[in-house]
């Protein structure tokens, strides 16, 4: 499941307002990232992948990954020539990782810290 485009940071408060109907009671967003049309939310319970489909983007798939289903993940920081950071997430039952690309403006260490906090439980 690969989404194309580079992610940038969204204010978690704005994301909570925009995606309030997706959140469970008391669920909090710790990190939010916008791709060209899609989004990634890291809450205190799960990772939510928001995939806008079709030409108009009216049809939307919301993919919820509970942290307990993440078996491991890897981050690759941006370099001098490769300006993008990458995140790979392996989910139980799938040999192929979910891959996300973040622009240099996103603190990939923050993304890793959020995942570490909740995946390691």
TrEMBL record:
Residues 3-119 form the Bacterial Pleckstrin homology domain. It comes from the Bacteria. Gene3D superfamilies: Bacterial Pleckstrin homology domain. Pfam families: bPH_1. This is PH domain-containing protein. It comes from Streptomyces indicus.
